[in-house]
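If I may wish for something, please sit down with the protein I am sending here and say whether tokens and residues agree:
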Amino acid sequence: MTQLSLSIEEACAATGLGRTKLYQLINSGELKARKIGKRTIILKDDLEAFLNELQSYPSENAGV
């Protein structure tokens, strides 16, 4: 069975973002997270949706 959710640590490893940044995104409502008891998890679908909605990095050659 495929893993459906990620712990904060797993989400950090998967995205390259730090714990503080992930919690900032969660607290601002930009990234959805769930609580199971004291544990915070992020559904893989929610993480992928968040990443897909990010703006593309502007290319230096965009106006050429």
Notes: Residues 30 and 53 are 10 Å apart (CA to CA). The first helix runs from residue 8 to 15.
